[in-house]
């Protein structure tokens, strides 16, 4: 990704996924272990949610706030919040979740993207050709 002086981010590389995700509006790399269905380093295909009233609670989304971007399973948190849950339910020795649910104030959300799918790489014997435009 490349950022310009206005703060907008433009893609610097494109990956052709064929016809797997025709409705995708973006793709990002996922890092971390809070969502067990997405290995760290995998690529998530995303579709921008234009109307936040149409969020499907219980589905996985990428949420960008004024401070961070995370991928979580969303639930309704009432008028002022969205609740974001991890699928990794690992706990500390005292029983507390390592990846606790997060309350995200709605006023801090820049945008939300539905996760359409995940692309992972298990093995490679050489470079992957990336098409640059």
Low-confidence stretches: 1-5
**How large is the share of residues in beta strands?**
35-45%
- Helix share, percent: under 10%
Task: Name the quaternary structure.
Answer: single chain
How do the strands and helices of this protein lay out in sequence?
Layout: E1 2-3, E2 9-10, E3 26-29, E4 43-48, E5 60-65, E6 69-76, E7 81-85, E8 102-105, E9 109-119
Antiparallel strand pairs: 1-2, 3-4, 4-9, 5-6, 5-9, 6-7, 7-8
Characterization of this structure:
With 133 residues, this protein is mainly beta. It contains no helices and nine strands. The protein has strands at residues 2-3, 9-10, 26-29, 43-48, 60-65, 69-76, 81-85, 102-105, 109-119. The strands form two sheets. Strands 3-4-9-5-6-7-8 form a seven-stranded antiparallel sheet, with no helix packed on it. A two-stranded antiparallel sheet has the order 1-2. Mean pLDDT is 87; it is low at 1-5.
Q: Could you write a compact summary of the structure shown?
A:
This protein is mostly beta strands. The chain has strands at 2-3, 9-10, 26-29, 43-48, 60-65, 69-76, 81-85, 102-105, 109-119.
Labels describing this entry:
mainly beta, two-stranded antiparallel sheet, globular, seven-stranded antiparallel sheet, 133 residues
């Amino acid at each position: 990704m490349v950022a310009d002086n206005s703060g907008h981010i433009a893609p610097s590389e494109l990956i052709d996924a064929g016809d797997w995700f025709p409705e995708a509006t973006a793709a990002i790399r996922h890092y971390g272990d809070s969502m067990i269905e997405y290995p760290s380093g995998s690529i998530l295909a995303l579709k921008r949610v234009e109307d936040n009233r149409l969020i499907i609670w219980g589905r996985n989304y990428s949420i960008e706030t004024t401070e961070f971007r995370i991928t979580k399973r969303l639930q309704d948190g009432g008028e002022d919040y969205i609740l974001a849950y991890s699928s990794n339910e690992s706990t500390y020795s005292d029983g507390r979740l390592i990846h606790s649910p997060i309350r995200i104030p709605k006023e801090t959300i820049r945008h939300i993207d539905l996760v359409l799918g995940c692309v992972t790489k298990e093995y490679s014997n050489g470079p992957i050709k990336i098409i640059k435009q």
